[in-house]
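can u do me a favor
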């Protein structure tokens, strides 16, 4: 039997590389893997770590590159879309680019062009679609994003659910974990807190901004489970899931856990209000999420924040 084909769009990014690694590590290598890159050639370290994978240059703004995938890789059974302008501050300064990339219209049009609609699209969205005025949002709560990033992501969700019939949209909280095979340029949350506190100087952390940070390997496990569900059941899905860790933690609590594990002086954590700092972009206050639907649908329970931080810092120590 021929292998199923998986395409990771945005495979060079933080989550994309972890996902490729997750698929590649499955016993018996049941998938043919391909990924896309955009700003630079695919990193050699990634190509070496994911042997026999195909790399394609794709620009979501124009759709350039998808035809080459049809010609040499063929129609994928599963596409995981991780491509985005994922930094809210950057979206805020160029809303047109944020919408052109974050709403994957060229990808959906390409998938719709195949005669058989047999591709599952797993699309990464964000907790920032919620306004942030209450705790533990559920999937059917109203969305009202406060920044361009969130607005582009909700536009993407609407586009996919109107134009495509086999999808899983994952509204993810902050994803944290070890660095990638080929290090990504953006700063990673735990590593950033760790290096800031390691300097021994007081740093500001917010007591009034709440998230449900999720360990990257849990996000990978969710994506592998969705892949498996589609391949084994062969029933198209229209699924919307909150993806977060099990706890609601403030930015200050996130830092306290890192300080505790590393043995840093907790008084280095200067607790302030998010309102005291201008970050050039509005950030929702409390977008903690209820993840009951995720746990019930896929039977996956993301690990507690503290355990994920330990695993992250242990992995960094080994590098
Ligand atoms: N990381 C988080 O904490 C987090 C939290 C919630 C939701 N998410 C969502 O999860 C997804 C993955 O996040 P991430 O942190 O892995 O993002 P990331 O590290 O910023 O990676 C973004 C990816 O998008 C690609 N890309 C950028 N512009 C593109 C374009 N015009 N055409 C095609 N590809 C393009 C990049 O390619 P190059 O590398 O070649 O530039 C890269 O592979 C995003 O949708 C993000 O919004 C992430």
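np, heres the sequence
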């Amino acid at each position: 039997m021929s292998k199923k084909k998986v395409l990771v769009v945005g495979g060079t990014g933080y989550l994309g590389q972890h996902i490729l690694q997750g698929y590649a590590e499955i016993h018996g290598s049941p998938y043919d893997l391909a990924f896309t890159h955009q700003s630079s050639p695919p990193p050699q370290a990634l190509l070496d770590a994911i042997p026999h994978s195909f790399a394609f240059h794709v620009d979501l703004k124009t759709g350039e590159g998808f035809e080459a995938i049809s010609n040499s890789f063929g129609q994928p059974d599963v596409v995981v879309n991780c491509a985005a302008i994922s930094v809210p501050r950057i979206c805020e300064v160029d809303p047109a680019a944020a919408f052109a990339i974050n709403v994957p219209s060229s990808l959906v049009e390409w998938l719709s062009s195949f005669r058989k609609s047999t591709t599952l699209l797993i699309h990464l969205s964000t907790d920032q679609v919620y306004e942030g005025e209450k705790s533990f949002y559920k999937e059917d709560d109203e969305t009202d994003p406060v920044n361009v990033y969130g607005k582009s992501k909700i536009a993407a969700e609407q586009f996919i659910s109107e134009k495509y019939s086999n999808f899983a949209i994952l509204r993810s909280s902050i994803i944290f974990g070890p660095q990638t095979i080929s290090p990504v340029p953006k700063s990673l949350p735990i590593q950033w807190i760790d290096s800031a506190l390691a300097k021994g100087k007081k740093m500001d952390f917010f007591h009034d901004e709440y998230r449900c940070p999720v360990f990257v390997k849990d996000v990978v496990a969710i994506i592998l489970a969705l892949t498996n569900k589609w391949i084994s059941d062969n029933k198209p899905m229209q699924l919307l899931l909150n993806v977060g860790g099990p706890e609601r933690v403030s930015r200050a609590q996130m830092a306290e856990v890192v300080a505790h594990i590393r043995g840093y002086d907790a008084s280095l954590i200067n607790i302030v209000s998010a309102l005291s700092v201008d970050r050039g972009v509005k950030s929702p206050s409390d977008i903690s999420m209820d993840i009951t639907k995720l746990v019930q649908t896929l039977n996956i329970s993301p690990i507690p924040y503290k355990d994920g931080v330990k695993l992250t810092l242990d992995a960094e120590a080994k590098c």
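The pocket of NAP is lined by residues 10, 12-16, 37-40, 58-61, 82-84, 86, 101, 124, 126, 172, 174-175, 184, 186 (CB under 6 Å). hope that helps!!
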